[in-house]
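Q: How would the structure tokens look for this protein?
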Amino acid sequence: MVTAGVDAAAQLPDHASAAMVADAVKDSFMSGFHTASWVAAAACIVAAVVVVFVLPARAQQPTPSPTHDDERSLLETARR
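A: Here is the predicted structure in token form.
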């Protein structure tokens, strides 16, 4: 898109206005890129806050595995 604007500016008959249009195209692109970068940074910060506060609350405690004594009592119960 930037190259299309610069190419269109190059076809203008007046070189002064062509330079102004090309500068405006480049400045508009960089301004939009700058704004998009801030929006992306804000989205990353919001996502990080959500992860910090939401995910630990949803974490499930692991179920304890049976110990050797528990296995032995289960075997004794099964033999009866």
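The mean pLDDT is 84.

Residues 2-61 form one domain.

Upvote if useful.
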